[in-house]
Design brief:
single chain, 213 residues, Rossmann fold, four-stranded parallel beta sheet, three-stranded antiparallel beta sheet
Length: 213
């Protein structure tokens, strides 16, 4: 097996797929309307497969290596799926708090030169408002889609050929090592991470801070 640089997030996930594909490393917990806990998990194989699906979808939106897109959502499993997809494709993902509004949101999107955004239900109206009349800006939603905006759920539920948008192994040149901190909880949802450190080289515009030395 050829050596993959484990400092690249896509390579890290792929390496673990070869070793323990069914190991569930992420658990997202949400309290439903009836007060019951609902879990959503991700294994290494799921992260890799979803990442390839979304990388191919991003490519279909015209995204190329170095292009930026925003993730404006609360704490969802799809956030991590897109992290992997971005690493596979070599794009820049820009995490933005879904509570951000008005001129502050507009500044963040424009300063980071985002070509598109994946948004949660609570942020759709705001992103749509600040990008009204925006030239060639795409918006996608979680779930099945809303109005003219496509949803991500059909992409994740769609057929998977195993080819994805490309091979992450040749995309390592411009990546930088960073520790990903998955610490942005929403209430009443949270998540747990497998104790193995998720050390990766992914393209990010902002982060919560440097990792441990």
């Amino acid at each position: 097996m050829s050596q993959r640089n484990p400092l690249i997030m896509a390579n890290l996930i792929r390496n673990w797929c070869d070793r323990e594909p069914n190991l569930e490393i992420l658990t997202f917990v949400e309290i439903d309307a009836g007060g019951e806990f609902q879990d959503e998990t991700r294994s290494y194989q799921q992260l890799w497969d979803n990442g390839q699906r979304l990388a191919a979808w991003l490519r279909d939106q015209g995204m190329q290596k170095g292009d930026a897109f925003a993730l404006v959502m609360q704490n969802h499993a799809e956030f991590v799926d897109f992290m992997v997809a971005s690493s596979i494709l070599g794009t820049v993902f820009v995490p933005i708090d879904s509570r951000t509004r008005g001129e502050k949101l507009k500044y963040m999107l424009n300063f980071a030169e985002c070509r598109g955004a994946v948004v949660g239900d609570n942020a759709l109206d705001e992103v749509e408002s600040v990008w009204q009349g925006g030239h060639k800006k795409w918006i996608a939603t979680l779930g099945e889609g809303q109005g003219a905006y496509p949803g991500i759920s059909p992409v994740l539920a769609g057929p998977f050929t195993g080819t994805g948008a490309g091979n992450s192994e040749h995309r390592s040149g411009s990546a930088h090592a960073a520790t990903v901190y998955l610490r942005h909880h929403r209430r009443p949802q949270g998540h747990y991470v497998h104790p193995r450190p998720l050390r990766c080289g992914c393209h990010t515009a902002w982060s919560s801070g440097p990792g441990p030395k």
